[in-house]
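User: Design a sequence. Structure:
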């Protein structure tokens, strides 16, 4: 029977980057996915993902996550006086010495006349912010992994996995495959894979909407930056200028961050939620300088996997540290921009059981009830 040094389960954003990193390090590695990534059944489709350097959720996120496949459009974050999004972004920029500009709503609309916000709003502009292309990033990582000798099994769901003193194993299609270490990066399927220990992970079904920008150049690159406006107790609204290709509809992409109901991966295929589309469309139009609201071109679902504190869950499985079972999940709707660095951390954990990267605050151990 073949024995690998490492098996990576799930080849989406995180798993594809881990596979590529392990292969580049010369590790004999096998990647397995239930579908053929990039695909539209999980959390990594829709054509674009916002990236920023000054990260308002936690200053420790602000590392260089790689330049490749990244499009710098600039990034605006703003909201009413005292809003947490721009305050957090300023704090993070200060702590990490990153260059950002604070501006009020009046200056924002003067410099970026495509927006409509009250004059006293507090906003921040980050010039290197922008977006990455998720499907292309995954395809590139898998191609790189293959080039460096990684083996892959696609359309092959893992049914069981385990670990003991000799290492780890997975079972798929009636076959048991063994390895010295294991990476579990199955996105919204992690609750099923971690059965019984995953009470704290909560997948939600989010709605992405594409609006007809009517060919108005103000709403297109390079004029329009990526944007996110804080709405206090309501989910923040974000937008990304049109970028065609990789199956994404044509139009300005908008959405509400964390608006969706609890869900399972199976529910993503259902008809798009019309009320969610209307909420996102109206919140976006409210912030755009238009005489008549931009209309919906297309809408799709995508899955978040929420952790209780919305920080990622990244580290060794608490019950299998010796077998070096590394888990990556709970990306809570903001993980994509870190995929390359998470791939590095997973490769370190799988091969050495530890990493020099500052991921201590993401440890699965922080949840008393388990992952
Ligand atoms: C609408 C939306 C907008 C977002 N916007 C942003 C953003 O602007 N910026 C940002 O940084 N992040 C954003 N995110 C979050 C980011 O996209 C996710 O954090 C990231 O894609 C998660 O990657 P993943 O590898 O965990 O999951 P996925 O990419 O879904 O990969 C999981 C893989 O595991 C496979 N799998 C599952 N079960 C099994 C099994 N049993 N056996 C084998 N394979 C299995 C699946 O087929 C899948 O390929 C957004 C997410 C959504 C949904």
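Assistant: Done.
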């Amino acid at each position: 029977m073949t024995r690998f040094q490492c098996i990576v389960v799930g080849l989406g954003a995180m798993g594809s980057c881990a596979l590529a990193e392990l292969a580049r390090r010369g590790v004999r590695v096998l990647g397995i996915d239930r579908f053929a990534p990039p695909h539209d059944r999980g959390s990594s489709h829709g054509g674009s993902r916002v990236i920023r350097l000054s990260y308002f959720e936690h200053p420790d996120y602000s590392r260089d996550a790689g330049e490749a496949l990244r499009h710098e459009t600039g990034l605006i974050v703003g909201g009413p006086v005292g809003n947490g999004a721009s305050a957090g972004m300023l704090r993070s920029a200060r702590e990490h010495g990153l260059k950002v500009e604070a501006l009020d709503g009046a200056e924002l609309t003067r410099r970026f006349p495509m927006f409509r916000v009250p004059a006293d709003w507090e906003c921040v502009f980050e010039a290197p912010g922008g977006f990455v292309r998720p499907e292309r990033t995954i395809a590139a990582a898998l191609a790189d992994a293959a080039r460096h000798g990684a083996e892959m099994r696609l359309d092959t769901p893992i049914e069981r996995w385990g670990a003991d003193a000799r290492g780890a194993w997975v079972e798929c299609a009636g076959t048991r495959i063994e390895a010295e270490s294991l990476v579990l990066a199955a996105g919204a399927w992690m609750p099923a894979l971690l059965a019984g220990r995953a009470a704290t992970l909560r997948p939600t079904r989010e709605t992405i909407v594409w609006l007809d920008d009517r060919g108005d150049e103000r709403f297109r690159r390079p004029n329009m930056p990526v944007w996110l406006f804080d709405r206090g107790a309501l989910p923040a609204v974000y937008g990304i200028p049109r970028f065609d290709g990789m199956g994404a509809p044509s139009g300005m992409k908008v959405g509400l961050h964390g608006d969706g109901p609890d869900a399972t991966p199976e529910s993503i295929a259902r008809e798009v939620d019309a009320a969610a589309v209307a909420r996102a469309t109206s919140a976006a139009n409210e912030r755009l300088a238009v005489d008549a609201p931009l209309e919906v071109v297309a809408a799709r679902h995508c899955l978040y996997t929420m952790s209780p504190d919305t920080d990622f869950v990244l580290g060794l499985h608490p019950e299998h540290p010796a077998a070096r079972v590394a888990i990556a999940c709970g990306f809570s709707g903001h993980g994509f921009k870190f995929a390359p660095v998470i791939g590095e951390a997973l490769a370190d954990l799988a091969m050495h059981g530890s990493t020099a990267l500052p991921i201590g605050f993401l440890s699965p151990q922080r949840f008393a009830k388990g992952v």
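The chain has two domains: 3-44+134-199+309-366, 53-131+202-306. Residues 9-15, 32-35, 37, 42-44, 46, 49-50, 157-158, 185-187, 189, 193, 206, 208, 255, 302-304, 331, 333-337 surround flavin-adenine dinucleotide (CB under 6 Å).
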